Amino acid sequence: MIRNRDDASKPAPRSRKPLLLAAGLATAAALGAIYGIAALGGKSADSAACAGTQEVARRVAPLARGQVAALSITDAPRPLPALAFSDGTGRQRSLDDWRGRVVLLNLWATWCVPCRKEMPALDALEATLGGSEFAVVAVNIDTRDPDKPRAWLESVGITRLAYFADPSARVFQVLKAAGKAFGMPTTILVDRNGCEIGTLAGPAEWASEDALNLIRAVVRKEP
Question: What's the gap between Cα 3 and its chain centre?
Answer without folding.
Answer: 54
